[in-house]
Amino acid sequence: MAQRIIDRSRVGDVLQHLYTCDVDITISLISKVGYFYLGVNDKRVPLHGTSIEEAVTDLAFKVASEFPASEFATWWVNNFREDDINRQTI
């Protein structure tokens, strides 16, 4: 993953920003057999990594990439993605 993994102490902060952001999304985070998945339309989309830090980092990257003009994307870029948010897409 090109993204720098967030610190465990920032996981709650990232999830709170996703919860209160201007993007209308529904998020289900699923953990099964050591892997994390994003629940989307009754499907499981795998998230990169096997730790909560890696999963939330990948989730945040996906949301910021999908909604680059959102308040969340701006916050994410300013705090974690300064170098390469535009280099990858979902």
Any overview of this molecule?
The protein is α+β, with helices and mostly antiparallel strands and 90 residues long. It contains three helices and three strands; from the N terminus they run H-E-E-E-H-H. It has helices at 11-20, 52-66, 71-79; strands at residues 28-32, 35-40, 43-46. The chain has a three-stranded antiparallel sheet, covered by helices on one side. Strand 1 (28-32) and strand 2 (35-40) form a beta hairpin. Helix 1 (11-20) packs parallel to helix 2 (52-66) and helix 2 (52-66) packs across helix 3 (71-79). It is globular and about 35 Å long.
Layout of secondary structure:
Elements: H1 11-20, E1 28-32, E2 35-40, E3 43-46, H2 52-66, H3 71-79
Antiparallel strand pairs: 1-2, 2-3
Features:
single chain, 3-stranded antiparallel beta sheet, 90 residues, alpha+beta, disordered C terminus
Average predicted local confidence, pLDDT: 83
Query: What fraction strand?
Result: 15-25%
Structure annotation, total helices:
3
Largest sheet: 3 strands, antiparallel
Element-by-element helix/strand order: HEEEHH
Low-confidence stretches: 84-90
Cα-atom Rg, whole angstroms? 12 Å
Give the distance, in angstroms, between the N- and C-terminal Cα atoms.
Answer: 12 Å
The dominant shape is globular
The overall strand count is: 3
Helix content: 25-40%
Structural classification: alpha+beta
**Strand ordering within the main sheet:** 1-2-3
